[in-house]
Amino acid sequence: xxxYNITEAKAQLSDLTRRAMAGEEIIIARxxxxxxxxxxxxxxxxxxxxxxxxxxxxxxxxxxxxxxGGFEEYL
Length: 75
Fold this sequence. Notes:
A 3-stranded mixed sheet has the order 1-2-3. It has a domain at 1-40: YefM-like fold (3-Layer(aba) Sandwich). β2 and β3 form a beta hairpin. The longest helix is centred in the first third of the chain and has 9 residues, at 13-21. The protein contains 2 helices and 3 strands, in the order βααββ. By secondary structure, it is α+β, with helices and mostly antiparallel strands.
């Protein structure tokens, strides 16, 4: 973790951004009190599209729906 005051952070913003993107924790402080943490933005996940996995499931065991031995009492 590295801590910088606002003036230092302003002067080194490009470098601090690069370091935060590399995984380093960067704290920006005022009067030695932490104010903000510089972290990378997480990319939003794409919504799943119906049919996008078509053709990817190649094989299902013929006994897929069969009840395993010893589990009959739980049904």
